[in-house]
From TrEMBL:
SUPFAM superfamilies: PIN domain-like
Keyword Nucleus: yes
Superkingdom of the source species: Eukaryota
Residue intervals of the XPG N-terminal domain: 1-98
One Gene Ontology MF term: nuclease activity
Family statement drawn from the similarity comment of this UniProt entry: Belongs to the asteroid family.
Official protein name in the record: Protein asteroid homolog 1 isoform X4
Assigned keywords, A-Z: Nucleus
Gene3D superfamilies attached to this UniProt entry: 5'-nuclease
Length: 400
């Protein structure tokens, strides 16, 4: 996810863009699902094909949290919610890739067990650690919260390289669970901009759009930047992008010139760029009010009261919302409510046999009935008959 090639470029030039840092007496915003995947891959013991290992994962999560608390660092975990309509194509493509990968006879160790993330929610609730499940993608909320709390972000998403919040990639942290300090390397985007001619940070959304991301194809601006389609050299791209932007009169002029000659999807790309710009400027946190309810956040409440807003309205019924925010209700519930679809997680299994989730269809129909009523039908997407990604049956909500 994020901006293709950017992470590799930054890491290959890490001495230029990172500085040594020690985390202590601070808050940090942690991208929750990025952490679960990172820690699982770090401690996975080649048994992914069998699923489980939840006891090992629980121990690792607890050790990670205790390390931060021991170093007087309060972690705030923020999690993605429902899938968004604008990412459906990307989601389906990734499902197909995983099905092909997990269907190989040589099994991969790159498969998160089904309840791997649910364990973390249980631990966070038991330890009363600040956390929140967002309605949709969490990146914008993570940035807004980090700006208000004046603290760094911890993740693995390359999108954070194109923002002004201090950023610590997970693999730049020295994780010694017995230590009393957390050594890491901190990224600040100003160093990158200075390396490429000193553009103002207000141009970051345009740089991100020109590089391409989950919403804008990488080759969209190849002609504008005089690049061959399929160019993956991120350093060359950044050089061409910053040179082109420095020739523009201002941001509005650059935005106009970016989209004026696009042969296809001009309106779509223009809207996506404006969305990126809007998220970049945003400092309103939708969920800060919820996070500040935790006891560990008590000393920050007075200083932030002017930034607090009433809890964000949601389509969730009141009886469900608090449990959803705490993660005791899975985010797939929000996908069902908003997209009226369900995407089954891809797991390692015998692909010559029906997929594992077929046995749950009757139960799901009852859940759909509770959430959206018995008169709705919900398409389901997942593996069907071997290595194909297909729409499965449409399930109709029913009464309990």
């Amino acid at each position: 996810m994020g901006i293709p090639g950017l992470t590799s470029f930054i890491k290959n030039n890490s001495t230029q863009y990172f500085e040594n840092h020690q985390l202590t007496d601070t808050l940090v915003i942690i991208d929750g699902y990025a952490l679960t995947n990172f820690l699982y891959r770090m401690h996975e013991n080649q048994t992914s094909a069998f699923g489980g290992d939840y006891d090992i994962m629980a121990t690792v999560y607890i050790d990670f949290i205790n390390l931060f608390l021991r170093c007087k660092v309060i972690p705030i975990f923020v999690f993605d919610g429902a899938y968004e309509q604008r990412k459906i194509e990307t989601i389906i493509n990734r499902m197909s890739q995983r099905i092909q990968l997990y269907g190989n006879q040589i099994k991969t160790s790159d498969c998160m067990p089904y309840f791997g993330s649910d364990i973390l929610f249980d631990i966070l609730n038991d330890m009363d650690i600040p956390h929140v499940n967002c309605d949709f993608e969490a990146d914008a909320e993570i940035v807004a919260m980090a700006k208000l709390l004046k603290c760094p972000v911890i993740s693995r998403d390359s999108d954070f390289y194109m923002n002004t919040v201090p950023y610590i990639p997970l693999d730049m942290i020295t994780l010694d669970f017995k230590s009393t300090m957390i050594n890491c390397r901190l990224y600040k985007v100003e160093k990158l901009l200075n390396e490429f001619g000193g553009l103002h940070t207000s141009y970051l959304p345009l740089i991100a759009a020109l590089l391409g991301n989950d919403y804008i194809r990488q080759d969209t601006f190849s002609s504008l930047l005089r690049l061959r389609p399929g160019t993956f050299n991120c350093g060359l791209k950044l050089k061409r992008i910053t040179e082109w932007l420095r020739r523009q009169k201002d941001i509005n002029n650059a935005l106009y010139n970016m989209t004026y000659n696009l042969p296809h999807s001009r309106d779509y790309v223009n809207n996506q760029i404006k969305n990126i710009m809007k998220e970049y400027k945003n400092t309103d946190s939708k969920y800060l009010t919820f996070v500040l309810q935790y006891k560990r956040m008590a000393k920050y409440q007075d200083g932030l009261k002017n930034y607090l807003k009433p809890n964000e309205k949601t389509i969730l019924p009141l009886w469900l919302e608090n449990n959803y925010r705490k993660g005791t209700i899975n985010s797939e519930v929000m996908t069902i409510l908003t997209l009226k679809k369900i995407f089954f997680k891809v797991q390692i299994e015998d692909y010559q046999k029906p997929p594992y989730y077929e046995v749950s269809f009757k139960i799901l129909e009852v859940i759909f009935g509770l959430l959206i009523g018995k008169n709705y039908t919900v398409p389901t997407l997942g593996r069907k008959n071997g290595l194909n990604t297909e729409q499965l049956v449409k399930l109709r909500g029913c009464e309990c």
